[in-house]
């Protein structure tokens, strides 16, 4: 692969590997779109070129080139289920580009005819009764569901898409008749479609950036020893897979090679971390925090995604369909009556045209598209738009605890030194040093607290691990640790600056014969208050104690009162943690129902029980929440703190660590619903009012066609108000 054109923030590559290879070009385009810092990409299999526009502050040409060369040289199993979610992103991207092109052309045609009509006037065909009759017939067939279904039934054997033919004919006749109202309507519909697809594309891209690999996939080892990305549906017992740092374990298996620290956070909901090495078993849903593992699959994984609700279940849609069914009968009766008394077929045509109910359906469809665009402005992605009705009807919300209402890490409440030779900061530095290579919540809390003391920006550390390493080197921390061993569920034993250090709980200290007489009452007092006390000793002498507790998201404190102001008072907390720890969080946030020590099945039973009397929304983040999320009427997750399986089973994904966005979701949904409902009523009233005028011969057939078009334009303009809704309490 070589560079053929280089500009600041823009580069074009050329490679023979994607030339005439549509599948590889497609996958490469998908992959490039998920590279950090890439703003735009276009991969052409016809020329073998790759165009990339990128943010120079976030990435550079060398990194991009290396990433592309890696994907071009890797093996990918392109089976039908392998990259479904990534294919969805690619399809939306293609649709967006097509609609964008269509919007440009429809806008230009509209402007061209406006200019031409103002200078030269209209051609004779625009006033042709035959052309008008044909256009009216197409409008009537497309606008009345009953007639449209009859048309589809008689044209189902046509090779081409019958609905496409109907739309194409309508567009051609609109152009031939030089109907500026019709051309404006086409341009507005294209604009509305582009806005919706752009919002979808933005959210899909954010979602892909939050996934390490495509969901429900695994790196399987081929007979030649190469790694190949394949669908988890295609793996079999005893297959060998690779699991890389940062990835979710896709299937239960035995570790054949490698060592790592594994987090149980997404699997059990508990932030426990433990070491894994050759001969150990890894379980589906755990996360590899360090190193790479070679694993033999011993249990086929069960993978399923939440089924989408059908559009027909929306109450708004039911009302639209009900009105359309009624108006068909009314239009037929009025048309027959009019013909009996007037014998004027054009007057009959005027009545049927004016009563055509397509505007109410347009009000619903474009309203939902604008609603999706509105949510995307606030970093909310409604993956399943058909839950719209359920969201506004929600009267019960169930929260997972750890990682949802609370942080994954803890917060330090107090540090107490029992040795005048060691200050509070010195004790914190020793703990952070000895825990530097560990990843569990307590060690992360030590490190983050020390970084705060030295004003190290958390985001800077997240983007560049060298910052953290440099910080430790400058503070002579890492060099002072000669040895450090993590003992799961107990603590850490280390040698720091030639001193033996123990960090852990009372059981760990008693096993090592450390006297706790003077501090045991204090330790138990904090433990009974649901704090996490951590003991520290140097060379067998108790040196200090650090008091921690579970840290609740600041935005959680603001969320609960806002929900109660909306009348959503049935709030519940589900946790696999102990009842007492769950009660501490529920009491702090004023959540009335608490369920502790819950496994996956118990969570589902609680959701199903609540669904008997309520519309239930579930907010979760871990693999142990998947079944409950699938059972709930509406499921919501936060992208940055949820595992990939949860995202696939979420109706709504929020791309911001702010619980307040959940309140915004409900507020924006209710406000949008009111506007859409009002616009449907306006469209229906418009039909009935002008239909009455048409009955008494108030309109010519030309005027009736324009009135029908104006109704559609009106609801499109009224629906634009949705884009300007602001979240309120």
Automatic annotation (TrEMBL):
Regions crossing the membrane: 103-125, 131-147, 327-355, 685-704
EC number in record: 7.2.2.21
Family to which the UniProt record says this protein belongs: Belongs to the cation transport ATPase (P-type) (TC 3.A.3) family. Type IB subfamily.
Compartmental location: Membrane
Principal place of residence: membrane
Catalytic activity: Cd(2+)(in) + ATP + H2O = Cd(2+)(out) + ADP + phosphate + H(+)
Keyword Membrane: yes
Domain P-type ATPase A: 215-309
Gene Ontology, cellular component aspect: membrane
Membrane topology term: Multi-pass membrane protein
InterPro entries to which the protein is assigned, alphabetical: ATPase_P-typ_cyto_dom_N (IPR023299), ATPase_P-typ_P_site (IPR018303), ATPase_P-typ_transduc_dom_A_sf (IPR008250), ATPase_P-type_domA (IPR059000), Cation_Transport_ATPase_IB (IPR051014), HAD-like_sf (IPR036412), HAD_sf (IPR023214), P_typ_ATPase (IPR001757)
Record key words, sorted: Cadmium, Membrane, Transmembrane, Transmembrane helix
Name of a matching Pfam family: HMA_2
One term of GO molecular function: P-type cadmium transporter activity
Gene3D superfamilies per record: Calcium-transporting ATPase, cytoplasmic domain N, Calcium-transporting ATPase, cytoplasmic transduction domain A, HAD superfamily/HAD-like
Keyword set includes Transmembrane: yes
Name this polypeptide is given: Cd(2+)-exporting ATPase
